[in-house]
């Protein structure tokens, strides 16, 4: 199994120490060279939803969950990118991150273009960044709202990408201190909505 965090000598890199080097697919990503990720270190989140508080720690915890859910590198990369918008949150509203999803989209796009990732990785990362909260809150939506999310992520045109989107969002939900084994019924809700719609077409 490819390690999430490489070893330096005999000791693994601590998520709260030096920025780690992450292997995704066949590529190594030195997070210290991606300033948009480094910027997340020490950025607080609301402890009620993120007991780990630190945004960078959350991203690394979500990456671990993504690896448990799938070996698909596009999902791992999307998970790594999903909260970059929190690095742009004004200090006077912290630890809240209102609108970080939309704010993160151009940041993710710039990172993808700069470091050069496959087009399918880029497309998924942008969708997860912009829409992950919509899946987290899908239980509050009725049928039309759920189908709207499917259209937004292009599920009918690309069912595989829909599944990858679900997995990245699930990794985000479980990448939180003490919540690693939490249920995530939102996955089943979106899959069922997709299946019902495709059966009627």
Description:
- The chain starts with 6 loop residues before the first strand and ends with a helix.
- A two-stranded antiparallel ribbon has the order 1-2.
- The protein has 201 residues and is mainly α.
- It is globular and about 45 Å long.
- The N terminus is likely disordered.
- The chain is 51% helix and 6% strand.
- It has one domain: Hypothetical protein af1432, CATH 1.10.3210.
Give me some keywords for this one.
single chain; 201 residues; mainly alpha; Hypothetical protein af1432; two-stranded antiparallel ribbon; 8 helices; 51% helix; 6% strand
Question: What count of helical segments does DSSP give?
Answer: 8
Classification by helices and strands:
mainly alpha
Question: Radius of gyration over alpha carbons?
Answer: 16 Å
Total domain count: 1
CATH fold annotation: Hypothetical protein af1432
The largest sheet, given as strand count, sense and whether it forms a barrel, is: 2 strands, antiparallel
Order of helices and strands: EEEEHHHHHHHH
**Could you name the ranges where pLDDT drops below 50 across 5 or more consecutive residues?**
1-17
CATH class: Mainly Alpha
**How much is the average pLDDT?**
88
Q: Estimate the global geometry from the Cα principal axes.
A: globular
Order of strands, widest sheet: 1-2
Q: State the end-to-end CA separation.
A: 40 Å
Query: Do you know the CATH architecture?
Result: Orthogonal Bundle
